[in-house]
């Protein structure tokens, strides 16, 4: 029986690379979305809601629920389940609508 | 065949799942110029979602029971000459005149996960790039009002098109995938190598108009095939917004595309055949699944023995999943539901309760199951926004969703607009593929004025298979129809609308105190359904809660209409699609 999803499909991914989540280093694989890379590191929440300040992460996994919005390289409201992870990406928890502290 | 950019495509297909691929390949083989738009980075749709090439999965079939059928379909599509535009989110379809439609899409980076296959962030990469290889053949085709894409296509137009035409002649006649293997394999190999990385980098730096990542694109065409599939239906319960609670389909999608799991001990709950498939693939991928909770019983199927007998493969599928559950020692609880999730910032446990026939929890039956994730879903709902926006008639399915009304040859109530697959009611990939092919033939028959095409044995055979599978889909929907008692799961402070954080209490107040009787009125009072997802997650629940204050009970009346199928930045609207010759 496979112990990991990668075992199951006999994956031989390209070389792993690093991204950061709120300053912490996270390893990602080529082909993974930002959400997938965060899940692989055991991180399930990267947004807080506008009203209750509650934590949220990926829910629908296919770009429809917008619960997985994250700030990626300073840009808020990116759907982490769709955005491919790239070497050096800085993911930060998005608070509320994500525009706090931005010059917009 | 269109020779200039301003000349429309014969057919634009929206969605590159089994229905869209079959429809496009069939229509292209019958001589139509065809473009396929899809939001994802790779073809396959939700069911055949698979790892991005960068993940180097040697056995993607390990998470797919019918992988060979998909690769056959993909090869056929690749060899057909249809243009493939990945990463294109279609937000509306408009009628130009009696004989022409405009399909409006946003092409953007968010359309693509993954390297390699995920390169097609703009039309030009898509049309000439990897994956299906089919794109290259469509070089220089018209109707694509996107300066960059058209320009790039033209540059390499002649040779690609010629090369493909040569390679294709042999396989064309028989219409199946034989003989086209070469093209398909090449396409895939190309997708796996470096081409992708460049594309992505390019997409990242050169993206967007005036700083917007998403670039508007407009395709003109003479017919449209809607193959937009379905999305998961969710019903709320206390704690369903905690991190670690994910859609059952979402968990499956993340596993299939990114090779990741939301936790180590994952409870699977809700209703519908998808749950068994999800539980067995999560377990195969290494998760412990301490329980699967199905809110219905399976006796519902037995009430329609004829539909069962006519679809032996469906029984086989169920048996395969059942065996997988046994092998992984996963207990299946029927007439049960997760009625509460415990945890402060993430899932720590769930309460599993027995349900009565109406899905009302039986008091005193709740028991706590420790887990770190919950995968939940209550069946699939057809994605019909684009169609209802154009006035297509819908029907209510036995499980309370709304599907498009279609004629015997897959045409909607609006002439010139066809649909195939889940848009006509959830029925699975095989039904989708059959309906796609039927639609492809029907469109070709109409546009080429060759009605004889629809009278052949092939069409009779396809229609027979479709009707048989539709009968099963009907039985399946009836067996998993949500019972009206599910609303008893809700506390007044349960968030129903995830985006706007609107609680069940405030929705009930809008119904009982303020007199709201439908989702729209509830939305105006409470903002439920007004957030980012536009009611996709809470729509079914809000409609039930609104209708619960009426004599109709908890059955909502009509499919919701929304003018835009995906959120569109105002800047993209203002900029308008790039016109031919720009750039």
TrEMBL record, chain A:
Domain of life per record: Bacteria
Q: Which UniProt keywords apply?
A: Oxidoreductase
Q: Which InterPro entries match?
A: 2Fe-2S-bd_N, 2Fe-2S_ferredoxin-like_sf
Under which name does UniProt file this protein?
Proline dehydrogenase
**Lineage per the UniProt record:** Bacteria, Bacillati, Actinomycetota, Actinomycetes, Kitasatosporales
Transmembrane portions of the chain: none
Q: Which GO terms describe its molecular function?
A: iron-sulfur cluster binding; oxidoreductase activity
TrEMBL record, chain B:
**GO molecular function terms attached to this record:** oxidoreductase activity
Per the record, where are the segments of Gly residues compositional bias? 109-120, 130-141
Q: Which residues form a coiled coil?
A: none
Q: Where is the composition biased (Basic and acidic residues)?
A: 142-171, 186-204
Q: Which domain of life is it from?
A: Bacteria
**Segments forming domain BFD-like [2Fe-2S]-binding:** 496-543
Region: Disordered, residue numbers: 107-206
Key word Oxidoreductase present in the record? yes
Query: Where is the FAD/NAD(P)-binding domain positioned along the sequence?
Result: 219-426
Residues of the signal peptide: none
Question: Which keywords annotate this record?
Answer: Oxidoreductase
In terms of InterPro entries, this protein maps to:
BFD-like_2Fe2S-bd_dom, BFD-like_2Fe2S-bd_dom_sf, FAD/NAD-bd_sf, FAD/NAD-binding_dom, Metab_Enz_Cyan_OpOx_G3PDH, Opine_Oxase_asu/HCN_bsu
**PANTHER family in the record:** ANAEROBIC GLYCEROL-3-PHOSPHATE DEHYDROGENASE SUBUNIT B
> What name does this protein carry?
Thioredoxin reductase/bacterioferritin-associated ferredoxin
- Specify the species: Streptomyces eurocidicus (Streptoverticillium eurocidicus)
Q: What is the lineage of its organism?
A: Bacteria, Bacillati, Actinomycetota, Actinomycetes, Kitasatosporales
């Amino acid at each position: 029986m496979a112990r990991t999803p990668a075992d199951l499909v006999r994956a031989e991914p390209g070389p792993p690379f690093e991204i950061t989540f709120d300053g912490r280093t996270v390893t990602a694989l080529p082909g993974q979305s930002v959400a997938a890379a965060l899940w692989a590191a055991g991180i399930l929440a990267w947004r807080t809601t506008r009203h209750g300040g509650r934590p949220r992460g990926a829910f629908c996994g296919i770009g429809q629920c917008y619960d997985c919005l994250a700030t990626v390289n300073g840009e808020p409201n990116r759907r982490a389940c769709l955005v491919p992870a790239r070497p050096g990406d800085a993911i930060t928890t998005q608070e509320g609508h994500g525009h706090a502290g931005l010059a917009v | 065949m269109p020779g200039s950019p301003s000349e429309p495509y014969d057919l634009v297909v929206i969605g590159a799942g089994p229905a869209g691929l079959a429809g496009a390949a069939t229509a292209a083989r019958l001589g139509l110029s065809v473009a396929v738009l899809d939001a994802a980075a790779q073809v396959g749709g939700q069911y055949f979602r698979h790892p991005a090439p960068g993940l180097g999965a040697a056995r993607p079939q390990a998470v797919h029971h019918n992988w060979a059928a998909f690769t056959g379909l993909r090869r056929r599509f690749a060899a057909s000459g249809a243009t493939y535009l990945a990463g294109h989110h279609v937000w509306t379809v408009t009628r130009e005149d009696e004989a022409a439609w405009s399909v409006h899409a946003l092409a953007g980076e968010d359309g693509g996960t993954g390297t390699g296959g995920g390169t097609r962030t703009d039309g030009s990469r898509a049309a000439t790039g990897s994956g299906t290889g089919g794109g290259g053949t469509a070089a220089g085709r018209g109707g694509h009002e996107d300066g960059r894409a058209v320009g790039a296509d033209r540059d390499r137009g002649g040779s690609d098109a010629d090369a493909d035409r040569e390679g294709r002649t042999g396989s064309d006649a028989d219409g199946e995938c034989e003989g086209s293997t070469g093209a398909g394999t090449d396409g895939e190999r190309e997708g796996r190598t470096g081409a992708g990385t460049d594309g992505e980098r390019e997409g990242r730096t050169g993206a967007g108009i005036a700083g917007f990542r998403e670039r508007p694109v407009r395709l003109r065409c003479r017919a449209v095939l809607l193959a937009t599939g379905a999305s998961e239906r969710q019903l709320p319960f206390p704690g369903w917004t905690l991190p670690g609670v994910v859609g059952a389909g979402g968990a499956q999608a993340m596993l299939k595309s990114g090779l990741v799991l939301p936790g180590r001990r994952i409870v699977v709950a809700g209703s519908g055949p998808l749950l068994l498939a999800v539980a067995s693939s999560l377990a195969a991928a290494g998760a412990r699944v301490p329980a699967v909770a199905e809110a219905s019983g399976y006796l519902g199927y037995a009430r329609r023995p004829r539909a069962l007998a006519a679809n032996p493969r469906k029984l086989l599928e169920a048996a395969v999943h059942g065996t997988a559950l046994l092998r992984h020692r996963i207990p299946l609880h029927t007439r049960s539901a997760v009625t509460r999730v415990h945890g402060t910032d993430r899932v720590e446990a769930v309460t599993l309760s027995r349900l009565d026939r109406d899905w009302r929890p039986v008091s005193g039956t709740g028991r706590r199951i420790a887990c770190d994730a919950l995968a939940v879903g209550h069946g699939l709902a057809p994605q019909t926004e684009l169609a209802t926006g154009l006035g297509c008639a819908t029907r209510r399915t036995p499980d309370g969703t709304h599907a498009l009304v279609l004629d015997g040859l897959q045409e909607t109530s609006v002439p010139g607009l066809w649909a195939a697959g889940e848009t006509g009611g959830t029925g699975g990939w095989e039904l989708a593929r059959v309906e796609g092919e039927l639609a492809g033939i029907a469109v070709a028959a109409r546009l080429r004025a060759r009605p004889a095409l629809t009278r052949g044995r092939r069409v009779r055979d396809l229609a027979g298979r479709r009707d048989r599978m539709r009968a099963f889909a009907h039985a399946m929907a009836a067996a998993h129809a949500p019972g009206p008692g599910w609303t008893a799961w809700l506390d007044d402070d349960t968030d129903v609308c995830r985006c706007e954080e609107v609680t069940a209490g405030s929705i009930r107040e809008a119904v009982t105190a303020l007199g709201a009787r439908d989702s729209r009125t509830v939305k105006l009072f409470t903002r439920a359904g007004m957030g980012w997802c536009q009611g996709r997650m809470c729509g079914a629940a809000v409609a039930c809660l609104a209708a619960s204050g009426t004599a109709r009970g908890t059955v909502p009346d009509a499919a919701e209409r929304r003018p835009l199928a995906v959120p569109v930045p105002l800047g993209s609207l203002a900029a308008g699609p790039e016109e031919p010759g720009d750039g």
